[in-house]
Design goal:
By secondary structure, this protein is mostly helical. It is built from 23 helices and no strands. Helix 1 crosses helix 15 and helix 5 packs antiparallel against helix 12 (about 200-215).
């Protein structure tokens, strides 16, 4: 087994282009996150009425979450396909294709007839479009991290790796704001056609993302690296342990979002009786906080190492998991919003430093494939978090601690992965370059 090292940097690094690429990467991932996460919000709030009208509300929500999870099942295939392209033809060209596919699939959801019009074909077509979303995102995240870090100076790579992570809260903010406006101004038509508006907005957002990505350069690291003939095969042969470590390290950063936002939104409205405005406001304010905490944790990762920041966030989240959901179980509107706000800080550490952790332990020549594949494997586990928690909640008759079990398990898995990444990185630093 080969021990991984950070991608080599070259004298061609251009600070101005590094900043421009980081900004473009952030805007691209924000729009990509919007496209992907709008499905999660709609699944929590309206899809049970639109596409699963024949089922009772709880069963309909579970079905919607299962289709939501299907996007994660398609991710490994997307990681292999777009990883191959990214390591063979370039980061920039591949990222243009991923965002194009994502934008078209998301916008098309807004055009789908509902169950009352075409019956069972409605959820079938919804599933197909969700799978296309997952295929696209299988290559998006890894490429965004690489194109940002491979333009950066070595000492600033961990910080630059956190910049694309800002796309997640910004995408959430856009979604929460749009759904909130719709819920307040058009509550009577939300389930009939109002829910389509956020999906249709994906079409103009796609134009913005394409414009920005066409304006950046290919990375100097990719230009200098030897090209692997079949990147996926090489990754499996030379870096299997690094794949396992990276996958475990990513579970909390991805899964905490879907548990604490998508599932907890449904929990708040269906079990606690909170309004849609309350749960959407909580997600919106939490995302605003992440605009500060993500770069702060990125700066910390630059000082002490990305894997250590991921580990610290995972340990802290494991400790607060059960107290957090006990508070949520007795919360009114104000307490619910406070719990979501404070409970999201520690998982954000694991999210902010995740890209730097992976970039540190994978080789440049197969980096696109390795990052994308490891992330996609973790996303399969994380993507099923809402549906697993929903089913677990029904099995325990809604016991207050049932979401805490899921959050704690994800935290422990990520803690183990991050600690292994610390050792892997330290071992790589002792080897001759």
């Amino acid at each position: 087994m080969s021990t991984s090292t950070a991608p080599a940097q070259t004298s061609a690094v251009n600070p101005k282009m590094a900043r421009k690429t980081a900004a473009a990467s952030f805007v691209g991932t924000a729009l990509e996150s919007y496209d992907f996460y709008v499905f999660g919000t709609a699944a929590a709030l309206v899809f049970n009425q639109v596409f699963f009208a024949a089922q009772d509300p709880l069963a309909g929500t579970l079905s919607a979450f299962l289709i939501f999870a299907m996007g994660f099942v398609a991710r490994p295939l997307g990681a292999i396909l777009f990883g191959h392209l990214g390591d063979r033809i370039g980061r920039k060209k591949t990222l243009i294709w991923t965002i194009l596919l994502m934008g078209l699939a998301t916008g098309s959801v807004g055009l789908l007839p509902d169950y009352s019009v075409i019956g069972v074909w409605a959820p079938i077509l919804l599933t197909v479009l969700r799978l296309v979303q997952g295929l696209s995102l299988g290559g998006e995240w890894g490429g965004s991290i690489l194109i940002a870090t491979e333009h950066a100076a070595p000492r600033r790579r961990a910080f630059y790796a956190s910049i694309p992570q800002l796309g997640s809260p910004v995408g959430t903010m856009l979604i929460s704001f749009i759904f909130l406006v719709l819920a307040v101004t058009m509550p009577d038509i939300m389930a009939s056609w109002g829910w389509r508006i956020p999906f249709l907005l994906a079409f103009p957002f796609l134009g913005i993302a394409l414009y920005l990505r066409l304006a950046i350069d290919e990375t100097p690291v990719f230009k200098a690296a030897a090209k692997a003939r079949v990147p996926f095969v090489e990754v499996l042969r030379s870096q299997p342990w690094a794949i396992v470590v990276a996958t475990a390290s990513a579970v909390l950063g991805i899964g905490s979002y879907f548990l604490m936002v998508s599932y907890t939104q449904a929990y708040g409205t269906e079990r606690l009786g909170l309004s849609q405005e309350t749960v959407l406001n909580a997600a919106l304010i939490g995302s605003l906080l992440q605009l500060v905490t993500i770069p702060a944790f990125g700066w910390l990762a630059m000082k002490i190492g990305s894997a250590k920041v991921v580990a610290g966030g995972a340990l802290g989240t494991a400790l607060i998991a059960f107290p957090l959901y006990w508070v949520i179980s007795i919360a009114d509107s104000s307490l619910y919003m406070t719990a979501i706000l404070l409970g999201g800080i520690l998982p954000t550490a694991s999210w902010a430093a995740l890209g730097g952790l992976m970039a540190d332990i994978f080789e440049a020549r197969t980096g696109f494939t390795a990052l994308s594949f490891a992330y996609s494997l973790a996303a399969i586990v994380a993507g099923f978090a809402p549906s697993i928690t929903q089913a677990f909640g029904e099995a325990t008759d809604g016991a207050w601690w049932h979401p805490g079990v899921v959050l704690a398990l994800m935290s422990v898995l990520t803690l183990a992965g991050a600690l292994a990444a610390v050792r892997l990185r330290a071992r790589a630093a002792t080897l001759p370059q």
